[in-house]
Amino acid sequence: MKSICVYCGANFNGDPVLLKAVEELAAAFADQQIRLVYGGGSVGVMGIIADEVLKNKGLVTGVIPQFLLDLEVGHKEVTELIVTQNMHERKQKMADLADGFIILPGGFGTLEEFFEVLTWLQLGLHNKAIGVLNVNGFYDHLFAQIDVMVEHRMLKPNNRALVINSDQPLELLEKMKAFTAAPDPVWFKDRDLI
């Protein structure tokens, strides 16, 4: 993997465990010559991971829509800053530039981006690894809900298995490198999961 798109929050809650995990992930990106692709912001967890990768002499590509740049939240020090017309173009560009995806703690936008690329993987539109850095159990309830979807036969177990989960940055990267996509190719034919 030469580039990984990281989805994360434009807020930072001050959690020192999250900060340490972001620092470790950023150092691993730089050490392994993985380019960070992210939302182009200078604030929150987004700003922290970009700053940390740059501090470690890594490469950072930010992708930001013009309206957010106009609000002065764009990161001006990144290696490359791509400005898009809107959010849809931004998300497509980020996905196109990435060889994989990592989800850090965030809010609605982070979850929306996560489920979009996960759905694309399930549909076979890409075969890139999707990893969740589950810092301090931040996503435990989300994974519990996904397991409920399987239990209630609204999601097949092999599609549930498409999500890589770890609370350790280096372990997550290693799992992602070993990932091979195996979505269910007949999800649209077998609609009843009974």
From TrEMBL:
What is catalyzed by this enzyme? AMP + H2O = D-ribose 5-phosphate + adenine
Under Enzyme Commission nomenclature, its number is 3.2.2.n1
Q: Please provide the Gene Ontology terms (biological process) for this protein.
A: cytokinin biosynthetic process
Q: Which Gene3D superfamilies match?
A: 3.40.50.450
Q: Output the Gene Ontology terms for molecular function.
A: AMP nucleosidase activity
**InterPro entries for the chain:** LOG, LOG_fam
Which spans of this chain does the record mark as coiled coil?
A: none
Gene Ontology CC annotations of this record: cytosol
Q: Answer whether the UniProt record assigns the keyword DNA damage to this protein.
A: no
Instruction: Report the enzyme's class at the first EC level.
Output: hydrolase
Q: Superkingdom, according to UniProt?
A: Bacteria
Sorted alphabetically, which keywords does the UniProt record give? Cytokinin biosynthesis, Hydrolase
Q: Which PANTHER family match?
A: LOG FAMILY PROTEIN YJL055W
Instruction: Give the family from UniProt.
Output: Belongs to the LOG family.
What is this protein called in UniProt?
A: Cytokinin riboside 5'-monophosphate phosphoribohydrolase
Organism listed in the record: Pedobacter westerhofensis
